[in-house]
Specification:
The protein is an all-alpha fold and 111 residues long. The protein folds into two domains: 38 residues; 46 residues, no CATH class. The protein has seven helices and no strands. Helix 2 packs across helix 3 and helix 6 packs across helix 7.
């Protein structure tokens, strides 16, 4: 049957790596899914099964490390001309969350 979903089972080492990438390296579920060749929903299920509390998109910019340092890094990257996508990947969040944080920091709009 074409288009049927298949159940993905991760080895213990892969499960631990998924948790580490999400929690410690603050990667997004989409990026982790891309690395493992699965859907983001599969990664989400693995994280929930491991007991990980999922973060909201805006937490990618403010949850880890001192907030002032992360805001300073956002301002530096913004001034350097990095794209929303590049900044989002660096912070493990979404471009929308980066845009909202930039507005909150009153960073000058770019073309």
């Amino acid at each position: 049957m074409s288009g049927a979903s298949r159940r993905v089972s991760f080895a213990d080492a892969d499960r631990a790596r998924i948790v580490r990438l999400y929690v410690e390296e603050r990667m997004t579920m989409d990026l982790i899914a891309e690395r493992f060749g699965v859907a983001a929903s599969t990664i989400k299920s693995a994280l929930l099964k491991a007991g990980v509390t999922l973060r909201t998109p805006s937490q990618g910019l403010g949850a880890a490390g001192p907030a002032a340092e992360r805001r300073a890094e956002l301002r530096r990257r913004w001034a350097a001309g990095e794209t929303l996508q590049q900044i989002a990947e660096a912070f493990g969040t979404t471009p929308t969350a980066v845009y909202q944080a930039a507005r909150k920091e009153r960073l000058k709009r770019r073309a």
